Amino acid sequence: MNVNRKRFSRCWILLAMGLLLLAAQGCTSRSSKRTQEDKTNQSTRTTNPLERQLDGGSYCVQTITQGPPPATPIHFSNKENESDGSSKDFEADLSGDTFDLTFSERHPATNFDRKLNEDFAKVAPPTPIKDGFAENTRTNHYTRSDQSGWRVGPNSVALGGTPWGLFVAKPTVTRVGTENINGYDTIKYAVDTTHQSQLAKSAFLLAGGLKDYNITGTAWATKDTNCILQYVIDFEQDGKDGTVSKTHYEGAITKQ
After folding, report:
1. pLDDT on residue 53
2. Are 213 and 237 in contact (CB under 8 A)?
3. What is the pLDDT of residue 48?
4. Residue 37 included in any domain
5. Residues sharing a CB contact under 8 Å with residue 211, sequence separation 6 or more, in sequence order
């Protein structure tokens, strides 16, 4: 990861923290004299699946694994591909009380990658470098009896292989309809920032040091738990230096 990408990742984290802080302040400043009728209406709005908003930070790989063992094995696939040739691929299988995860990564090889290969050549297999790209694949096995690991596995997929960070920008999300996907009742959402003003995008633009960006695509969230079951999202960012980069995200769940 180059310096600019590291900087942008750190900015995402700082922006998320700032938004959370503002949200907390907003909550504490609300009047404590809300009537019982208002409370009842608020409760109705949040529990009605047709009124809920898409939660871009909640993914079904987390929700399903933390529930009871599924009747049939489930496969989770989450991919991220960038315009510079970099990619991440998370392939996981949930069967009963086991969760097997294979993570594959590819990025332009750096001098740091080559240096690591030299330093650890005698104690560990080197990271393959092919056609200028460093490639790495790791496999992990988790069991439900290991409560800590059981959370780490699915969380690593959600945090490392999904577009959750893009939803910090609060992109425009529109409910399209309902759809049954692999036996799950879902609500389909369209995500599109192409019509958002620069003012609406200002916080994310400032955090990333960008001239402009756009987030477009589709996401399906389960009606009962409101977790994202499937998605196809594209992110394009225009740097102030004239550079343009694109990232494509895909995620799906299939019953085996």
Report:
1. 82
2. yes
3. 55
4. no
5. 205, 238, 239, 240
Give the number of domains in the chain. 1
The 10s digit of each residue's pLDDT in 30-66 is: 444 444 444 444 443 444 555 568 989 999 999 999 9
**C-beta of residue 55 within 8 angstroms of C-beta of residue 162:** no
Return the beta strands (E) in 5-118 as ranges. 74-82, 87-95, 98-108
Q: Which residues of the chain have pLDDT under 50?
A: 1-47
Contact between 75 and 171 under an 8 Å Cβ cutoff? The reply is no
Q: Which residues contact 250 (CB under 8 A, 6 or more apart)?
A: 77, 78, 79, 231, 232, 233
**Cα distance between residue 139 and residue 103, in whole Å:** 6
Positive or negative: CA dihedral 182, 184, 189, 191: negative
Q: Domain containing 129: what range?
A: 3-22+63-255
Residue 30, in any domain of the structure: no
Residue 40 within a domain: no
CA neighbor of 249 nearest in space, from 36, 63, 95, 86: 86
9: in domain: yes
Side chain identity, residue 70: P
pLDDT digits over 211-230, tens only? 999 999 999 999 999 999 99
pLDDT at residue number 4: 45
Q: CA torsion sign, 122 to 128 to 133 to 139?
A: negative
Residue 253, amino acid: I
